[in-house]
Structure formats: structure tokens, C-alpha cells
Amino acid sequence: MASKRVLLTGLSTYWGGRLAQALEQDPEIEAIVGIDRNPPKVELERTEFVQVSDAHSLIRRIVDAAEIDTLVDTRLVVDSVVTTPKRAHENNVIGTMNILAACTGRDSPVRKVVFKSSAHYYGCEQDDPAFFTEDFRRRRPARTPIERDIVEAEELVRDFSVHHKDRTVTVLRFVNSLGPGLRTSHSQLLSLPVVPAILGFDPRYQFIHADDIAGVLEHAVRHDLPGAYNAAGDGVLALSEVADLLGKPFAPLLPPWGTGLALAALRRAGLQSGPEVERQLRFGRGVDNRRLKAAGYRFRYTSRETVVKLREQQRVDPLLRAASSQYRYEREVEEFLRRSPNVRRALPETPPAEPPAGLDSLDARELIKLIPSLEPGALEALRDHEKAHRARKTVLEAIASSLVRQRTSA
Fold it and tell me: 382 and 245, same structural domain?
């Protein structure tokens, strides 16, 4: 089924905003509607934002009025440091129940539901298989509140698919994600001067790059993928290998007993991490991603490449933060720009972007690693700056190649 009219829940989340931006580039998508309690954090052109709670009666009115054929639910909270257990449960379980209720009924226009879930569904135990397949069923009850929420939410989605066999229902179980703009328990843990570990344990890890999460969600919108799919970059790394790739000492300083108390002390020192992190630091986890690849998705980054990109990001983050400006949603301004007859649709050209400050302190190799993370405007400004000052052939060639790739993928 070709998705034409898409409803995104959780538009204010990183993933909801990224997916909306990607779908806006497709002229075949007729309508994109985003709902959330909070306004979006990224600038959008075609996406209609509706600030609304998770009440199923309100969402049902939006679904019916806009004749939504595809619903993508990106709201799931998978990191316990984001909010309280009570609020997480209300969002993850009660919210999912209401979202699905808004799609029920024979007269509902919804024909596809995509649910963004987490590999936390499998948990972390000492006797886990080397790789979890999507058909695995938990042998033990969930250990943490977030795990319980995810299991309950997936049960609701599974019941919905059983009672609505005429709909395509997709569940995407993502492993730990890393990428620019992401702040999670694991990204904070890996940003420390050393990589802490539990004494006597060197757990297995898989990662998925932020670009691949957005890519997987978009792939599920464009193709019919019934059932559950694991989403993880190829390859498995021991935590000691992750530390080595980041160029940091591997420090098994956490005690095997009373680990929670030791992590609590780190939290008081500023590190935010939930009980899910402790389970993974002890036992690790691996998932089988072959089903998603067989469904046609090609990952852009392996687990190793995702960690290498994180190291590059940590090197240049201070420079990029100094150069970036934060978007802020203002309803009146958006309404004016989109609907006022006084707005000239052929807007004047924006002034050329300035290259991020501090780039002159980087050598050619470091600068070439940074180039793929820059937007087209900043790349063009960097090209002009490089031509006028140092004119390094390797840097100019890397900028030209990156501009070609971005224009081809747009």
C-alpha cells in the first residue's frame, strides 16, 4: 500500500521531526500531520502540527477528517532518565492504547500502523542467546519499569494486529542509538573521559546511527513490513572495543555487587543513567537484523562506524554548538508564513551561511572528517572560505563530493 496521508505521533521527538522532514521531500506524500503535547523542535514546511493530548476521541477526529492511511507512532519513552516512571507509563502504555483505539473500526481510513519500539523488549539476562531474533519470547518477567512498559505496549500492538488483519502493523525494535543532537544515557556514558564498566564484565554492544533510525522509519512508511523487525547496525563490539575506538581508557571500576549504588553516585555527580544501563553493562545484548535487511533496508553505518562517527562528533561538537542556532516554534509566525497573502512565495535569497567558527584550528584530515556533518549552506561557505585562504586540494575535493551526495539524496 502506498502511503499518501501520514499521521506522526510524537512530532516533538527527535525521530518524529526527522521523519517529518524526510517525508516532506516526497511529492507523492499528499499530507503530513504531526500531533504532540509539545511543539516541534525542527523547522517544517508542509507538516501540519496539531497540539493535542493522547485522548483517542480527539485523535480519531483528526484521523477521520484528514483521511489518514498511515500512522507512525514515535512517542515511546525508552530511556528512564527522560521522565518519571509514572509519566513514562502513561505515555508508553495508556498513550499507545489511545493511539490504537483511534485507528479501530471498519470505517477507519488507517491501513498501516508503524510502531517505534526498542530492543529493551528482550531485556538483558545472563543466559540470553547470542542474538535475539524477532520471534523470541521472554522467559522472565521484565526487570525495570521501562522494560515492563515496552512489553505491555507491544502486547497492545500485537492484539491490534490480530483483530485487524486487513491492516499492515510494523514493530521496529531499535538498539542503542548514537548521533548528532542525541542525548541518551549511553551517549552521556560514552562522553565521559573514561568508559566505565563493571569489574569482571566486558559486555557486547550494538549501535544504530541516528540517520539509520530515521531511514528505517521512512522505509517502513514506504513499504509494507508486517510484523516485528530488529534494527541494529551490522557487527557487535565489546565495551572495551568501544572505548578503544573512542580513544578513551576502559575503566572497569564499578563493583559487581552494589553496582546500582555506584551508578547512583555517578548520577549525583551529573551522569544520567537508568537501570537499563546497569543491565547492559553487566550482560550486554545482541540482536539479529537479517529480517529487516531482507525487507530491503540497507544500513548506512555499522556498529563500529557509528562509534567512530561518535568520536568525530565529540571532537567537533563544541565548534558546531557555537555555530548553530536553535529553532523555536511560534504558532503565530508559522501561520503567517504559511497562510498570509502578504507573504511572497518567492522569498529573497538568504545571506550566505558562515562556516562554523574555529575550523581554522583543524588540520586537513580532521576537517575532512567533519565535512559530512555540515549542512549545504555551511559547506558552501566553507568552500568559499577554503578557496580564499588555504585552498587545500583534498579539503576542496571532499567538500565537492559531500555537496554532490547531499544533492543526489535530496
Answer: no
**Enclosing domain of residue 357:** 352-410
Looking at residue 373, the DSSP 8-state letter turns out to be: G
CB 250 within 8 A of CB 238: no
Q: How many domains does the chain have?
A: 2
CATH no. for residue 237?
3.40.50.720
- Using the Cα atoms of residue 376, residue 377, residue 383 and residue 389 in order, give the sign of their dihedral: negative
Same domain? For 81 and 194 the reply is yes
Angle, CA 47 vertex, CA 45 and CA 51 arms, to 5°: 125
Task: Give DSSP secondary structure letters for 329-371.
Answer: --HHHHHHHHH-TTS-SSPPPPPPPPPPTTGGGS-HHHHHHHG
pLDDT at 402 (0 to 100): 84
Question: Does some domain include residue 405?
Answer: yes
Same domain, 133 and 33: yes
- 345 in any annotated domain: no
What is the β-pairing status of strands 237-238 and 204-205? antiparallel
Helix (H) / strand (E) containing 114: strand 112-118
Q: Retrieve residue 50's grid coordinates.
A: 496539531
Last residue of a domain, one of 317, 344, 360: 317
Please tell me whether residue 50 adopts helix, strand or coil conformation.
Answer: strand
Q: Is residue 142 assigned to a domain?
A: yes
* Same-domain check for residues 358 and 308: no
Average pLDDT, the chain: 86
Q: How many CB atoms lie within 10 A of CB 182?
A: 16
Mind listing the pLDDT tens digit for each residue in 314-366?
877 666 555 555 678 888 788 887 777 777 665 445 455 555 555 655 677 77
Which tens digit of pLDDT belongs to each residue from 36-54? Answer: 999 998 889 899 999 998 8
| End-to-end alpha carbon distance in the chain | 23
Measure the CA–CA gap between 370 and 266, rounded to whole angstroms. Answer: 31
State pTM to two decimals: 0.81
